[in-house]
Amino acid sequence: SQAEWEQLLTNCSAFLFYGMERFISHTILNRLVAMSIPKCHLMILLDLVRSKQSYQRITNSSIHKSCKHIAIERPTETVMLLSLAGVRSIIANQWYTTLQGNAERLDAVSENLLHVGRTTGQTVRLLQR
Predict the structure, then answer these.
(1) Other C-beta atoms within 10 Å of 72: how many?
(2) Number of domains making up the chain
(3) Residue 92: which H helix or E strand, with range?
(4) Other CB atoms within 10 A of residue 104 CB
(5) 66 CB-side CA count, 13 A
(6) Domain housing 84
(7) Per the domain annotation, does 32 fall within a domain?
């Protein structure tokens, strides 16, 4: 529920979203824009996985949204909104990907941040290669 999302986001120092489609499609945009999330130091968004079913779901839900609303749901705009809400550092997919691709990214991020002890910048740089 939206209340659970809000509670998780406002009370965490790090947040990992690993899911299908766009992170923003799982929240109510107006509520997200009004949130204050200064305690969240790192947000990792491993989303943008698209299947035939998810593509159809996005297409159907987009019919009821304005062009401006759809534009705000793009990856760069999502990161800007989260940054304005107070999230300090965000690692996010920029393009659509496969389930396998996201699983590999999650492994690499987890390994480098938690096990090896690299910084977020070093970890992102490794992902870009």
Answers:
(1) 17
(2) 1
(3) strand 90-92
(4) 13
(5) 4
(6) 2-97
(7) yes
Of 56, 65, 62, the closest CA to residue 30 belongs to: 65
Cα–Cα distance measured from residue 124 to residue 129, given in angstroms and rounded to the nearest whole number: 9
What is the pTM assigned to this prediction? Answer: 0.87
62-86 tens-digit pLDDT: 788 888 888 888 899 999 999 999 9
The β-bridge relationship of strands 14-20 and 90-92 is: unpaired
50 domain-assigned? yes
Residue 41: inside a domain, yes or no?
yes
Reported in sequence order, the residue ranges of 7-70 that DSSP labels E, i.e. its strands, are 14-20, 42-49
**Which residues, listed in sequence order, are joined to residue 45 by a DSSP beta bridge?**
17, 92
pLDDT tens digits along 77-115: 999 999 999 999 999 998 888 889 999 999 999 999 999
For residue 90, being part of any structural domain is answered with yes
